Amino acid sequence: MQYTFSDGEFMSARERELVLKAWVRFLKRGLRFADFTKRLYEHLIQHCSFIAHYNRGGFYQTYLESGEDTVRFLSQFDKRGECRSVEYGGPWLHGDYADLNGAMVEEVAPYLPALLESAQQSQRNADLAEAGRFLAKHGLQRQRRPAGEALRHALRKKDLADIAHPPGQNKGRPGK
Q1: Is the model's pLDDT at 71 over the cut of 80?
Q2: Neighbouring residues of 155: CB distance < 8 A, sequence distance ≥ 6
Q3: The overall pTM is greater than 0.90
Q4: pLDDT of 13-36, one tens digit each?
Q5: Which residues pair with 84 in a beta bridge?
Q6: What sections of 77-146 are H helices per DSSP?
Q7: DSSP H helical segments within 29-111, as ranges?
Q8: Which residue of 3, 47, 64, 102 is surrounded by the most CB atoms within 10 Å?
Q9: Closest by alpha carbon to 15, among 51, 35, 50, 39?
């Protein structure tokens, strides 16, 4: 997309274009630290309602190293939601940088599904690895079921729950 930026007191139109270019490169390459430029970091902490977390590395570690944190970070730019600051909870798409911040929200849209899926898979893998460490600590192993068996097991549990409490019936309250 093409955007028209205006010069502001602290950031020229050209600098805004460079921040957006860095943002798109960062998204396109999968949120790699190598692509998390100083220019992008400084815009995020100065004009997008993020806390600095000491430095660029601290910010990246806080928001982009774990899947859950990455999902939280991306939610601030997800136009399907409220685009609220994940740090403060309020709006941030206003003021002198609304043009650039709005462009950032627009530009993330095509990358968002894949980035969210990757972050969620990363978190799942981390959670399973941690569960494995806890099991090993206690001399246990994770039981693996073939996919069909796991589905049958889940259905059996649901069927048993429905027998105990049929849908539409008030549980334990006769006459109601």
Answers
A1: yes
A2: none
A3: no
A4: 999 999 999 999 999 999 999 999
A5: 91
A6: 98-108, 112-137
A7: 38-47, 56-64, 67-75, 98-108
A8: 47
A9: 39
